[in-house]
Amino acid sequence: MNHRLEPLLNPQSISFIGASARADRIGGMPIDLLTRYGYDGDIYPVNPKYQEVFGLKCYADIESLPKAPDLAVLAIGAKDVTPMLERCHAKGVRAAIVYAAGFAEEGPAGRALQEHLEDFAKKSGMIVAGPNLMGLANLNTQAHTAFASVFNTAPMQEGPGNVSMLTQSGNVCAALYALVRKLGLPVSHFINTGNEACVEFSEYLNFLADDPQTEVVLGYIEQLRNGAGFIQACQTLQKKDKLLIALKAGTTDKGAVAVQSHTSALAGDKHVYRSVFEKLNVIEAQDFAQMALLAQLAQLRHRTAGRRVAVITMSGALGAILADRFIEAGLDLPDLPIDVQAVLRKGIPDYGMVGNPVDVTGNVVNDPGFVQEVLRALASTDALDAVVIYAPGYMLDRMADSIATVASEYPRFFAAIDTGRATCRDNLRQAGIAVFDDLGLAVSALAPFLLWQERRKAQTPIAAPATLPASGLALRKDGMNEAQALQYLSSFGVPCKEDLIATTLQEAQTHAAALAYPVVLKILSADIAHKTEVGGVALNIKDETQLAECYQAMMDSIREKAPNAHIDGVLVQKMEGKGVELIVGARHDPVFGPMLTVGLGGVLTEIYQDTSHSLLPVSEQDANELLKKLKAFPLLDGYRNAPKADVAAACKAIAALAQAMAAAPESVREIEINPLLVRQQGQGAVALDALILM
Amino acid sequence: MNHRLEPLLNPQSISFIGASARADRIGGMPIDLLTRYGYDGDIYPVNPKYQEVFGLKCYADIESLPKAPDLAVLAIGAKDVTPMLERCHAKGVRAAIVYAAGFAEEGPAGRALQEHLEDFAKKSGMIVAGPNLMGLANLNTQAHTAFASVFNTAPMQEGPGNVSMLTQSGNVCAALYALVRKLGLPVSHFINTGNEACVEFSEYLNFLADDPQTEVVLGYIEQLRNGAGFIQACQTLQKKDKLLIALKAGTTDKGAVAVQSHTSALAGDKHVYRSVFEKLNVIEAQDFAQMALLAQLAQLRHRTAGRRVAVITMSGALGAILADRFIEAGLDLPDLPIDVQAVLRKGIPDYGMVGNPVDVTGNVVNDPGFVQEVLRALASTDALDAVVIYAPGYMLDRMADSIATVASEYPRFFAAIDTGRATCRDNLRQAGIAVFDDLGLAVSALAPFLLWQERRKAQTPIAAPATLPASGLALRKDGMNEAQALQYLSSFGVPCKEDLIATTLQEAQTHAAALAYPVVLKILSADIAHKTEVGGVALNIKDETQLAECYQAMMDSIREKAPNAHIDGVLVQKMEGKGVELIVGARHDPVFGPMLTVGLGGVLTEIYQDTSHSLLPVSEQDANELLKKLKAFPLLDGYRNAPKADVAAACKAIAALAQAMAAAPESVREIEINPLLVRQQGQGAVALDALILM
């Protein structure tokens, strides 16, 4: 491994500037940890006040060290930081950690200090973590630089670990570490990122993606400052079959205010983050206990799994409750195939259930041969992805050997839930079976894990942007009117309404006659984004007289309501028949770049927030997935005996809009088709109106 | 207390028929528990095989007992049950518990056995619990009749308790008991109801409402067989300031199938259950751990609380996460009042937060005087209902005394969350502060508890049905057409469209001219419920010619599509202008009786399942609450600068429909107004169509 962050995250030697001899001081705690847990590298405490700390020689200043350490940890005040970094750099130190608060999070003076620090790092090429940082730990080498008391209270692992924490909060890092260690999982890296003045989240994530130890990353995110870097790091994680489990803070207004106050982070759009996480198969988590359990489940990701679960209980009630909770969480409980039911029925009495959930009844646990037969049938049928067994403690104990045996024979994922006091838990875990002692926690961890497995099976790498079709049209830099926007989109293959531009009433009447009534009349101006609001749209015009009336009324209204708009004329279109209206938009997200959004037209979509989002590129197949995710998708799919809409044509148009956005220069803020009218199957879709905002 | 179930739930003497000398057998385990835990009443084992069991004299048969016990427990096979009950009854036994399975849950033969048992109970007046029952326990008197190993594994309480379990599953009862005892809460009654052949859920609930010990009931419900009894018992609970926390199984299709298979229960409509729970201020729970924590929180219900929460942390990140989770769970985090912020700012540095969430920063914990000042400000402001503090273990320890002091001075609800290893937890609990060691569990318990407190403050008893307005109209028993339905509703004050009935085209034309065009034409027939589907509605008819065409087309269509319908004529109404359309329906729920449902008209309401429900009676104020619960309520409230709708008039009409349903005989299955057109404010609402199904 030869990553830029190597001296920071895997240092061979560490110096502490502002070292203390007391283990309860921030300048002393990490030195205490290093010496107690057997760090193998060199440690150089620096403090003119001491000759020796924790049995180590203490130096008067950085210049006195016998050699340049990989990493310097600065336990000194904010104002002294950059001068000291300069001295470290002169000595040959490659990386530094800055504990001090009092930078960007603390008003204008702090912001100036931070800018100064950033300038220095940029010029010198030094890797500076923080400021406002609790410090780091590489648990594989016991390289401790964090003043986190959790390393004294949580049991220390032996040997290397595969779970890493990467958090934008020291407290969250410590809380996660405690929970992960409570489950007995060994840790690779303990990373919190502080103010991210010089090294930000994605670069750490990139390191962990390359780290040979790390397999699972528990992330806490307030704001991503490098969306492209994040996407790339997640793609590397995916390639290496590693997994990021992330809690994103600021999903509510109050939460967003809190993260801004915390690390001056901008929480961003939760829908966008969610869609990016989904596309990159990141598991989004809600709380710490769930994250730790997901890290534990990730150890079993080599087992085949997915959303189709069989629930096995000794109690009809528990079967019902688990069915309710799993289905509400997005999993499926398919009916068991007839042949599997037949195997089960051989030993399950009439009052038991052989569908799904299965109630094997209490008697069955006394017949290990039959229990194994049942589990083998469930482990081998193609109709299932996973098996979850709920049994009171002593019953689980009686079945434990059978479960372990079958789990050793089949690669299928097995989980056991026991809210009692089973003694077999460790044995089951060693046999590769997930074990839970709480029903709610089991559901909250199993559901996202199994859905992750489902997506992982289906996963296709994010395509490199396809070669863009040559557009015959250059984008005008001074803004575009509707006709120009439609023309631009049309050049990428978006089907657009035939429209004719008129600059006089007479011309409009000629066009209308050519198109045949009824027609639509729209004002044409790059200066008017919302035509309806200024009386710039007239629908369903039936004849020449009505056209004249509408034309006059429109001109009067525009003169009054948009007196300064430059008017290019009017647009005449044939009035469309019935269909389903979509809104399709693409815009530059400040974090992740170009994103696409689809939703059904109309106010209710807004009220029910029924939209779906995706990073670009968006293929026709992706577009189809996006439409299917809408709660209102049934309206496209032949709702209440209505004809099915031409979804394939809609997907083509959506993919074409995505192409048009990808090809557009950065100055294009947003492209929107509203509405995209989707006619009935076989009759296509058509953009009735479009908007390009620069 | 002099409840009918007293001999069953508080027996002074118990006999065991089919007694065993072994503590691991169902006929022995409860006798072992009774003797070990010091039950004070008489115990009479009955089994001709033994002279003595557990040091007690064992009798050859029930007839040999020296006196009639209050309660007989039957540990014998299903077929022998009713004959034995007859002998018990002859002896003078007042109540019995039947363990045996093999009744209604097991096919036709079992159903016949159960009917026989029910007949006997009805005739004899004997109180029979079960069959298919794990047995009961009164932990106040240590009257054990359950074969539940959990009484051997969970620590036994000393003295009486105030938490009772009431479940339609023995396994769930045991699982809940274990969790409640793990939290150290003492239990009053352990009740599972089995097949409920003779005593059903509500009667037990009614007993617990009267029980002087019980304050909190943890319920598990698959099906309520007596909705009216349940409502009444919940009202008694409310009156006595007791609390029911209920998990309802079967909220998904698969869950519903499972409960049906389990106890042949019909899961019913989850929306209806949910609305009834809300009206009766029952807390609906999702899993067992949550229920146990809610039982613990209920011990603090004397503290003032509600939905407005202040979150106090030492970490911006934790503040953000808690804000997100609490708000997503339905709580509010109001901004703190300026004067409170000023108190906080005196000791909180600039980089801390004094809004809400509050980040007091780590330094503050070392100044107990200031911590108390902060907490007093939060405990006394009218802008809040509750205070939640999240602190890592050692920081919570440093603040513990201050929190306890302030909690003793103010009645406000305080909770503390520590995912570390605070040592102060027990002290805080003794001071009346809720303490959690997991963030997810804390939110899942606190949110429903605080929302329950909010509703409890606002709670008005369910009004007795008001004296109904004298309706001039008797309901026709042979079905009603639209005009008759509207007339019936009108007599209760539902504003209805003026409509004129015609039996010929000429008559229709005369009516149309009188009303003035445009008009609506509708077929009039009690036999046609869905007029649109048979071509029985024509809207927006502009003139006499068009009316003639529509009339003819309608008659042709009806002749073809509903050839057997008896036609009363056609209805002519004036065409209505714009407005918001509601669907308002009332129907007899098989469990709870008459229920009202409101939603916005149109397909999207169905797709988004955006409806709200209420038990009758429904006042205008209730109707207003129901409308406000709709996600689409903004459409009534001046959405996007549209005029506000006449919500007051809509509420009047909804309340009037509820009256009409309440006054209708049982034979009326459903009354629906679709649509109720709500015009803009001040212009009223009007029922455009109505349906009464017998």
From TrEMBL, chains A, B:
The keyword Ligase applies. Keywords: Ligase. One of its GO terms (molecular function) is acetate-CoA ligase (ADP-forming) activity. It comes from the Bacteria. The keyword Thylakoid does not apply. Residues 8-103 form the CoA-binding domain. Signal peptide: none annotated. In the N-terminal section; belongs to the acetate CoA ligase alpha subunit family. This is Acetate--CoA ligase family protein. It comes from Pollutimonas harenae.
